[in-house]
Amino acid sequence: MVVDTAYYETLEVSVDCTAAELKKSYRRLCLIHHPDKLAPGADASKFQAIQAAYEVLSDPEARESYDAFGPEGRGGGGMGGGGGDDFMDDLFANMFGGGMGGPPPRQQQKRQKTQTRPSEVEFKVTLEELYMGKEKSIAVERTRTCGSCKGTGAKPRAQRRTCIKCRGAGQVHALRQMGPYMTRVPVECPNCDGSGYSVRSQDHCKKCQGARSTKEKKKIDFFVERGSLPGEKIVLKGEGDESPDSSSPGDLHIHLLLIPHSTFTLHPSPHGPTFPASLHTTLSLTLSESLLGFSRLILLHLDGRGLRVTQPAPGEGGVSLLEGLLPEKREDVKGPEETDEVELVERRKEEEVSSLGFVSFSFEPLR
C-alpha cells in the first residue's frame, strides 16, 4: 500500500507505473517546465518538484521506501537519490548546451586532490622569550597517510573494488526538505567515506585497519622571532595533518600565548601591530624620593640589564620614559620608536614626613 502519492501525481503517472513509463512522463514534463522554456520571471518551482519526485521514484530502493513511509523515508532522515543524475545531465546537455549546474555524469567524474586544512595549536611563551627570541619545540599529534598501504587502506596485493553505492564518485545525493519541496544535495558517500572504492574487511591494511591514515606524535622545532607579540601566528609549512585524498600535508599554525610576567606588562603600539610595542611597570617610592628626586638602578630588564631611573625634580608622581627598551621585530619596520613607561607612585605617610631626612632610598615593585 502506498502511503503518499504526491510524487506520482507530480509526474502524472500511476502508483504502479513501470520504470519506462516513469522515464517517459518525466522527460515529457521536463521539456515543458524546464526554466529555459519558461517566460522570464516565471515560477520554476514546478520543474524543481518534478526533479525531486523523479530522483526518488527512479531509484528502486528510494521508491520502495517512499511507498512505505512517505517523503521522509525510513526513520524520518530523508532519502538518498541518484537514479536521474546521469539522465538529466545528458538530456539537458544535448537540448540546451549544458547540464543542470550539478556534477558531470559519474563515468566522467575524476576525484580532485584537495588541500588539507591547517592544524591550529596554542603555545605559551614568556615575555623574555618574546623580547630576546628563542628556539622552542612543541609535541603534536597529527594524522598522516598510512605508510604501509600508501593511503589505500588495503593489503599490498588486495583487490580494491569500486563502491557500489556511489559508483566511484565518492559522493551520493540526499534529499532534503526545502519549503514545500524536496531538493537534492551532494554528500560524502557513507559506504566508502568519499574514497570511491571499498575494501573487504579481510583485505584491510594491518597497520591502519582500513582507515587509510594513522596518528603519529612528533616533536617539532621552531623559532620565536625577536619582537614577536602575543596572538601572533607562526606557520610551519607541511607540519599539520595529512589526508590520503590531499595533494600535500596541511600547515601547522602555532598561536603564541603570553605567560603573565611578575614585573612588566606588554602594551601593543597604538599605531598598529607593525610598530614596536612597549613595556609597562609600576614602582612605589618613598616620600623623600618623590620630593627630593633620585637616581637609582631600580630593576632588571628582560635581557638582564639594570635599569636606572632618574627623577631630578620634585614631583607628585608621573611617568618616566626610557628610550628603546623593546626591539623592533623586523628591520623594515618604520614609524616612531616606542618606549617603556615607569609610573612613579607617591606614598604619603606621617612617619615619613616627620623624619624626612632619615628616610632610606628603597623601592618596592608592585605585584
TrEMBL record:
- Tell me which positions the record assigns to the signal sequence: none
Give me the ranges of the annotated region Disordered.
Answer: 94-120
Respond yes or no to whether keyword Repeat is given for this record. Answer: yes
The answer to keyword Zinc applying to this record is: yes
Identify the residues that the record assigns to the J domain, covering every copy: 6-70
InterPro entries associated with the record:
DnaJ_C, DnaJ_domain, DnaJ_domain_CS, DNJA1/2-like, HSP40/DnaJ_pept-bd, HSP_DnaJ_Cys-rich_dom, HSP_DnaJ_Cys-rich_dom_sf, J_dom_sf
Q: What is the protein name given in its UniProt record? A: DnaJ-domain-containing protein
Organism field: Leucosporidium creatinivorum
Q: Write out the coiled-coil annotation as residue ranges.
A: none
Which residue ranges does the record assign to the CR-type domain?
A: 133-217
Entries under SMART domains matching the protein: DnaJ
GO MF term (any one):
zinc ion binding
Q: Which GO terms describe its biological process?
A: protein folding
Keywords assigned? Metal-binding, Repeat, Zinc, Zinc-finger
Q: Per its UniProt record, what SUPFAM superfamilies does this chain match? A: Chaperone J-domain (SSF46565), DnaJ/Hsp40 cysteine-rich domain (SSF57938), HSP40/DnaJ peptide-binding domain (SSF49493)
Q: Which PANTHER family match?
A: DNAJ-LIKE-2, ISOFORM A-RELATED
- ZnF endpoints (CR-type): 133-217
**Pfam families associated with the record:** DnaJ, DnaJ_C, DnaJ_CXXCXGXG
Q: Which Gene3D superfamilies match?
A: DnaJ domain, Heat shock protein DnaJ, cysteine-rich domain, Urease metallochaperone UreE, N-terminal domain
